[in-house]
Amino acid sequence: MSQTTTTGTETMRLPATMKAWQWTTCSTTLEEAIQLNESVPLPTAKRPLASGESLIQVHAAALNQVDYKLAELPIVGRMAIPKPATPGLDFAGRVAEVGPDCDLTVGQMVFGKLEPKQQFGTLGEFIIGSKAGTVPMPDGISAEQAATLGVCGLVTYQCLAPNVKAGDRVLINGGSGGTGTFAIQIAKALGCYVTTTCSGKRPTVATMMHFLIPHSRKCSALQGSWGRRSHRLSPERCTYHSGKQLKPL
Predict the structure, then answer these.
(1) What is the rounded CA–CA span in Å between residue 196 and residue 220?
(2) Residue among 175, 243, 227, 141 nearest 184 (CA)
(3) The whole model's pTM is what?
(4) pLDDT in tens, 151-197
């Protein structure tokens, strides 16, 4: 059995069930505990949409460490997350149904993030998006690209934007990681001079971030590692102190 939702000129037929990756108990790792369930009731079968909420058909999802770490914590995993649970916070998809006072429309492409400890995460075909955590998807980017922005992009922006101004010099430790790649681009967009560190195995990732956002501010990369492995410092000779000392070759 299915139902049809209509808003304006858009109509979407909703299935009675969906596919979702779920787990009930996690005694070792989430990878071992998770299973694909092909007949899961939609999130709206458990409760109606609240004010500002929307039912979203997931087109793409991105995974973060929090998605498995919460499930693997003994107390949080067993008590704080309703079961059976579907992991995943970051998403991009199409609005399938809207609740009262929702600014979105059925059929609209959106992206965003869910809050932790959700029962219906983004590794399911449908999720409930909050008003604060769901925004329209801009033209020119794919669902796969938009789905990566939620957790890492928002955390990075919240850390940088209130604390820097144009002309500041910012050191980003670990510029080739998930948060670091966003930090380079956001700091440059805010008008900062950016210096970043990265491992010798991934210098190209951090260096290429310089060209992703056209900006006059300078971006340099310090390629290095702590301990016995060698490192290379660019563009100038310098020493970085943080417990261990980096010295130029």
Answers:
(1) 7
(2) 175
(3) 0.77
(4) 999 999 999 999 999 999 999 988 888 888 899 999 999 999 988 88
